[in-house]
Structures are given as structure tokens and as C-alpha cells.
Design brief:
Blueprint: E1 4-9, H1 14-18, H2 22-29, E2 30-31, E3 40-45, E4 50-55, E5 62-63, H3 68-71, E6 80-86, E7 91-95, E8 98-102, E9 107-110, E10 117-121, E11 130-136, E12 144-146, E13 152-156, E14 165-171, E15 182-188, E16 194-195, E17 200-201, E18 205-212, E19 220-225, E20 231-235, E21 239-243, E22 248-253, E23 258-265, E24 274-275
Parallel strand pairs: 1-3
Antiparallel strand pairs: 2-21, 3-4, 4-11, 5-10, 6-9, 6-11, 7-8, 7-10, 9-12, 13-14, 14-15, 15-23, 16-22, 17-24, 18-21, 18-23, 19-20, 19-22
Catalytic activity: 5-dehydro-4-deoxy-D-glucuronate = 3-deoxy-D-glycero-2,5-hexodiulosonate
Pathway: Glycan metabolism; pectin degradation; 2-dehydro-3-deoxy-D-gluconate from pectin: step 4/5
Pfam families: KduI
């Protein structure tokens, strides 16, 4: 029996999204659960054929298997690259026989062509939770671990505007080589709740946000949609949301929190974005 499960979602445009009620908006864009014990689970979105998922190894090694009806390839990374950030207990990832330590808030990039990949928790009572992003790849780049200390750090915002945050650029071309996948982690300071404000769009890239470190009993409201017609999705801890290229992506929590952003598309310039003034949002 396969230890990998998946869901496939087709892309829709802003005109179609206008007709969605709350349930429809959540069904199309919210990923409400990523981690299942001893399973690898993915959501495949047809926006840039991005895959977001999770691996939760508890009872031994957990293998990354191919998804034959979806990928039609003999192994998962035959034509893909993979980014990993651990949001749980300490763990390891084996890549074609080589072992990489990937502990809490550490990242690992695995390039196209890697065949045998296993996820391992150091302590089954505190299992690792490997958050996974994958995109199509045209070239093979080396597997590399990136710690928070090795990330490119950017301080933005201020406590006075409730958006003081640290952006940790981890799997980005200024840190490592990738084909198109970019990933990083933004940590909000205590007392700050707004992320990615002022908001922006980037029509050349889509994005997925994964919210975690959300305290028990607290939530995050994620904003999406065109600048002049925004919608919101209430999100809980360890949930993700798909952000189409035509949509803003911003959020505000009832507490500070952390989120992982992942992007794919034809442009890898992090600052290539179409900014919108706060007062233009509707």
C-alpha cells in the first residue's frame, strides 16, 4: 500500500473566483491539512504545477514515492525539484544514501534527478514535520541544507504599524541555486500581526503560504483577490493557502506567528512585484 496521498486542483481566474462563496473559496485555495502520520501528502495545483505538502514520519523511515497517475514518472524528482523546511521535531532526510540533518526551522533543497529520498524523525514522540514544496525543473542542482543562520535576513516593518518582521530567505538564488523554486520563512515579532503589508501582486509568479507557530486559540485571516476586490480566508495553525498570480497575498493574525512562503514562475527576482498602496485596497 502506498504511503503517499494527493489531491489535484485546477487553476481558476479572478472572474471565476468572484462567484465563489466562503465554502467555494476555501475548497479552491485553502489546504486545511498537510500532515498525516506516516504519510506523505501533496496538493497539486495547476498554477505553475506547484505542489505543496507534508511528510510526518513517526514509525520509522518514510519514503518519498512517485505519484504514478499524476506525474507519470518512475520516481518523484525525475523532472522536479524539492524544497523542505522542518516545522516539527528534529529529523533527517536521506538523499540517495547521503544523510542531511534538518532540524526545526531548517531547510533542505533537493535537485532534479534524486531517486531515493527518505524522511526520518529523531524522536518518534516529537516527530519531525517536513513541509514540502515542489516545482518542475529543467536542470539538476546540488542538494544543500540551509540553516536559519545561513539565510539572507531582511528586517521590515515596525511595531507602530504592527508588522515588524524578519524575512529569512532560505532557498533563494542569492543563497543557493534552484531552477524556479524559491522558499523562505517570515517571523513576526511579538506585538506585530500583519504580514506582507503593503500588499502586492506578481503576475509572473504564483505563491503558497504556510502558517505555523500560531498559538492555541488564535487564528490568522489571510487576504487574497484583486487589489480592488479582496476576500479573506480564516486559517488555523499548520494550514496553507494557494495564492494565484492575479491575487494579493497578505494576512493579519490575532497573535504573532510564522509563515513559510514558496514561489514559482518565470521570474526569480524577489523584488519583481507590483505594489499596491494600503489605501488602494478594497
Amino acid at each position: 500500500m502506498s504511503n503517499i496521498t494527493f489531491e489535484s486542483r485546477y487553476a481558476i481566474g479572478p472572474n471565476e473566483a468572484k462567484s465563489l462563496d466562503t465554502k467555494g473559496l476555501r475548497e479552491n485555495f485553502l489546504i486545511d491539512k498537510l500532515f498525516f502520520e506516516d504519510k506523505v501528502h501533496f496538493v497539486y495545483t495547476h498554477y505553475d504545477r506547484y505542489m505543496a505538502g507534508g511528510a510526518l514520519p513517526v514509525n520509522g523511515k518514510l519514503k518519498l514515492e512517485t505519484i504514478e497517475p499524476l506525474l507519470k514518472e518512475p520516481y518523484f524528482l525525475a523532472r522536479r525539484e524539492l524544497g523542505i523546511i522542518n516545522v516539527g521535531g528534529d529529523g533527517k532526510v536521506e538523499v540517495d544514501g547521503e544523510t542531511f540533518e534538518v532540524n526545526y526551522k531548517e531547510a533542505l533543497y533537493i535537485g532534479k534527478g534524486a531517486k531515493e529520498i527518505y524522511f526520518i524523525s529523531n524522536d518518534s514522540s516529537k516527530p519531525a514535520k517536513f513541509y514540502l514544496n515542489s516545482t518542475p525543473a529543467h536542470h539538476s542542482y546540488p542538494t544543500k541544507r540551509v540553516t536559519k543562520a545561513e539565510a539572507n535576513k531582511i528586517e521590515l516593518g515596525a511595531l507602530e504599524t504592527a508588522n515588524h518582521r524578519t524575512i529569512n530567505q532560505m532557498l533563494l538564488h542569492t543563497v543557493i541555486q534552484t531552477c524556479q523554486l524559491q522558499m523562505g520563512m517570515t517571523e513576526l515579532k511579538p506585538g506585530s500581526v500583519w504580514n506582507t503589508m503593503p500588499a502586492h501582486t506578481h503576475d509572473r509568479r504564483m505563491e503558497v503560504y504556510f502558517y505555523f507557530d500560531v498559538p492555541e486559540g488564535q487564528s490568522v485571516s489571510h487576504f487574497m483577490g484583486p487589489v480592488d476586490e479582496t476576500r479573506h480566508i480564516w486559517m488555523q495553525n499548520e494550514q496553507a493557502v494557494i495564492s494565484p498570480p492575479w491575487s494579493i497575498h497578505s494576512g493579519a493574525g490575532t497573535s504573532n506567528y510564522t509563515f513559510i512562503w514558496g514561489m514559482a514562475g518565470e521570474n526569480m527576482d524577489y523584488d519583481d512585484m507590483d505594489k499596491s498602496a494600503i489605501t488602494d485596497l478594497k
